[in-house]
Specification:
By secondary structure, this protein is of the alpha/beta class. Helices cover 38% and strands 20% of the residues.
């Protein structure tokens, strides 16, 4: 019994550790992510970096002329697989319409998704250093509003209905976005 409990705890620990790392997704020569969509590198003058994004189209996108709602997924590389699966299942069940999925790859979550600077004095503590790169949510929101959304809408048939999805720091950013820019999503 004790040995089984130790093995179970080790398995759960390994699973939790592996769940934090996103596996790289295979890419074809024309930047198609096998089974997922297309990867773009979006040069951002606002973020002052190139931001990888993944765009996945509905199954029948090329067979019709419909416009589609768009779901913007924070931490896109980590979350694109289950988001596509969930949306395809809900669409096939008739519970939601087909959607374009835009996965935004995280390069620095603490910087991009936090609205304020985290210091060593915050409740719960962050050690002596705090989170020095935090507090960039307003810049990241500008990137989404002025560069990413126009990039997507220029290239694809989009409907005006947009959804923003995030968890953890991504959820914090989604709440911040709702308060700062309530009509965007």
């Amino acid at each position: 019994m004790k040995k089984s409990l130790i093995l179970l705890m080790f398995f759960l620990y390994q699973t939790a550790m592996n769940a934090q790392l996103a596996n790289k997704i295979e890419i074809t020569e024309d930047n198609k992510l096998i089974g997922l969509g297309t990867k773009y590198i979006l040069p951002s003058s606002i973020l002052q970096e190139d931001r990888p994004i993944i765009i996945s189209l509905p199954v029948d996108y090329h067979e019709d002329q419909a416009s589609y709602p768009v779901i913007y997924v924070l931490d896109g590389l980590e979350n694109i697989k289950h988001t596509i699966g969930t949306i395809e299942l809900l669409t096939a069940s008739g519970l939601i319409p087909p959607m374009i999925i835009v996965g935004i790859e995280s390069l620095d979550r603490s910087r991009d998704l936090t609205p304020s600077r985290g210091s060593q004095q915050i409740n719960g503590g962050t050690g002596n250093a705090g989170i020095p790169q935090s507090g960039g949510a307003s810049t990241f929101l500008r990137f989404m509003e002025e560069e990413l959304i126009p990039f997507t809408e220029l290239r694809y048939r989009t409907h005006s209905f947009r959804i923003l999805e995030g968890h953890s720091f991504g959820g914090l950013f989604a709440v911040y976005t709702l308060m700062e820019s309530p009509t965007n999503f």
